[in-house]
Design goal:
By secondary structure, this protein is α/β, with parallel strands linked by helices. The chain is built from eight helices and six strands. The chain starts with 6 loop residues before the first helix and ends in a 10-residue tail after the last helix. The mean pLDDT is 94. The structure holds farnesyl diphosphate.
Length: 251
């Protein structure tokens, strides 16, 4: 579908343009099952997954979302067959090579979270170039989670922090705050996700943004990621807007 652009069209769908989530995070699950259902190789499912991502980026930009984080490769994904890992890395490089300019034209800045230093050198180079090319854009951040794991991020944050503390001297015991730790996460400077979407029906977090999703609303759809469209996204946002977020307060 074409994304409704006017406020009245959005309102007809039950969406308040003023309360669109600032940060949406997506676990793009179901590429393998999509391919299997068609007797296709899993890599083709991932390729279709990249195709599905493009209109979602466009839709989030036009809705005024500030950050879109997508789980493209987890710290656990390395144990998949080598051919599938290679296919995912190739797709990442192809995506960056082909889409960076268009993303820049849409006002999108590409960023990454995760331990990207473990990605193949060529993928790191493509990523660095894409981030550099789009660094002056500020309409929306497309945050790619690559070799990302929530536990790994926390451990790296603490190590990063310890390295800086040992240079500055001792940190007073008991004086570490949540804000201090958040400053060392890969997501430093970004708002926490308001809405986490997981496709393909699995009701799991799968080590995704463990710190950041403390009060995030979770929306699970049975739709497999390659079938996920802007309409599915609008359904998720509409559902999100019907909820009352209390952040631990009484009703
Ligand atoms: C999970 O589906 C999906 C992944 C492990 C990778 C997601 C990657 C993409 C959508 C493409 C790459 C993204 C970019 C930005 C280039 P699954 O394979 O676990 O599906 P299954 O559970 O049905 O087997």
């Amino acid at each position: 579908m074409n994304l409704p652009t006017s406020e009245s069209e959005l309102e007809a769908l039950g969406i308040d343009p003023a309360r669109v989530p600032r940060h949406i995070a997506i676990i793009m699950d179901g590429n393998g099952r999509w391919a299997k259902a068609r007797n296709l190789p899993r890599a083709l499912g991932h390729r279709q997954g990249v195709l599905a991502l493009k209109p979602i980026v466009k839709a989030t930009v036009s809705l005024g979302v500030q950050v879109l984080t997508v789980y493209a490769f987890s710290t656990e994904n390395w144990i998949r067959p080598q051919a599938e890992v290679d296919a995912l890395m190739d797709l990442l490089m192809e995506f960056l090579r082909k889409e960076t300019q268009e993303l820049k034209d849409q006002g999108v800045s590409i960023r990454a979270i995760g331990d990207v230093s473990a990605l193949p050198k060529r993928a790191q180079e493509a990523l660095n170039e894409a981030m550099e090319t789009t660094s002056d854009q500020c309409r929306m951040i497309l945050n790619l989670a690559l070799n990302y794991g929530g536990r790994d991020e926390l451990v790296r944050a603490v190590n990063r922090w310890l390295a800086s503390v040992s240079m500055e001297g001792r940190w007073p015991p008991g004086e570490i705050s949540e804000a201090d730790l958040a400053k060392h996460l890969d997501t430093r400077g970004l708002p926490d996700p308001d809405l986490l979407i997981r496709s393909s029906g699995e009701e799991r977090i799968s080590n995704f943004m463990l710190w950041q999703i403390a009060y995030t609303e979770i929306y699970v759809t049975r739709t497999l990621w390659p079938d996920f469209t802007p309409t599915t996204l609008l359904e998720a946002i509409s559902d999100f807007q019907r909820r009352t977020r209390r952040f631990g307060a009484a009703e």
